[in-house]
Amino acid sequence: MSTTVTATKTSSAETLQTFTIKPTPLWQPLPIEGDIPAPYTTNSGLEVVPLHPTFACELRGVDWSKSISQEAYDEIRQIADQYGVVACRNTGLTDEAHIEFSRNFGDLDDVRPYIDAGRKHRLAYPELFDAGNIDPETGNAAPLSAAQVIGNKANEQFHVDSSFNARRAGHSLLLAHVIPPKGMGGATEFADSRTAYDDLSEEMKQELETLVTNHSLFHSRKKAVPDYFKDTDPSKLPLSKHRLIQDHEWSSRKNLYIASYVYSIDGMDTVQGTGLINDLIEHVSKPKYRTTIPWEQNGDMIIWDNTSVLHRATGGTYEGKYPRDMRRTTVKDMSSYKFGLNDPSNEWRVGLP
Ligand code: OGA
Ligand code: MN
After folding, report:
1. For ligand 2, a single-atom ion, which residues have Cβ within 5 Å?
2. Whose CA is nearest to atom 5 of ligand 1?
3. 147-168 pLDDT tens trace
4. What percent of the residues of the chain are helix, what percent strand, and what percent coil, each to the nearest 5?
5. Is any ligand 1 atom within 6 A of the Cβ of residue 328?
6. Which residues 6+ apart lie within 8 Å of 352 measured at CB?
7. Quick one: 69 exposed, middle or buried, by C-beta within 10 A (0-12, 13-18, 19+)?
8. Cβ distance 306 to 165 under 8 Å?
9. Per residue in 188-209, pLDDT tens?
10. Distance from first CA to last CA of the chain, Å, rounded?
11. Any idea which UniProt keywords this protein has (predicted)?
12. Residue 11 reports pLDDT greater than 70
């Protein structure tokens, strides 16, 4: 069963008409701390270029012009399991090839909950999430007053995709169709939540081990743009329950499953829960766990595993002015933990206009 839950207009019409956001100042990537491992070539001839001491790589040598064989997928998947983030340059993938390749990772999610909430879908397939700033009416960069642009501000907070649905996301594959002019921003930043877990004290690990968190799309939106979402009350909307500390089945490591969507922690009052959530977000946001990956040309694709890394958009001076056309397939989690503590017989999803 699949049901959709939506919250529509959240403030008075007057507020919505006059509301605009400001472009985020140009993001300066943080310097990498420590030594980055040397690039290497796999047995089948793929080149892996690590981008950070503990996670994330660029993968070279895949022939994206052909359908990807099972063997090639298996190798790419092994690299994704290990690195959490895999950047593939200049793939030239079409919408169809992007979707076809993504299906190797598992069941694909789609944008129906957003369409049900009143959003106009500009892309040809419901499996493509629209992560850019293109106005579906004009095809140009949407203005800073557009609901889509205001909502996307929340993506500048570290998050994992779709943890607010009953069944969370596993992998995301984000493909650039149009990138903004050089020097105007639009890079994507990642954080290594497995290593952030490893670095916690034994005492802290024990304290966190059994905690259950409640995830809400509306909480993250409200945190990012409080005035716009001031009438939205996440406690009255669906909350998705997941364990804070997770086994990452694909790497046999543990992961700190924290995100901007985490609204509350079971068994803690608001002050205590919010305090711990903020502390953990601060921990995983330490510069040593982070790396920024710029989009170099149209056709670049970044694959990430939402169950082992966090990510965020960094905005930029292009916002409201230049198009950034980014399309994402989202693979539903295929691990044993996909439903967290939610009822697996009721696969509800949430959406926003
Ligand atoms: C996403 C996302 C970041 C970006 O597509 O899930 O968070 O830089 N994107 O567009
Ligand atoms: Mn995202």
Report:
1. 161
2. 131
3. 999 999 999 999 999 999 999 9
4. 25, 25, 50
5. yes
6. 6, 7, 114, 117, 119, 147, 151, 217, 218, 221
7. exposed
8. no
9. 999 999 999 999 999 999 999 9
10. 22
11. Dioxygenase, Iron, Metal-binding, Oxidoreductase
12. no
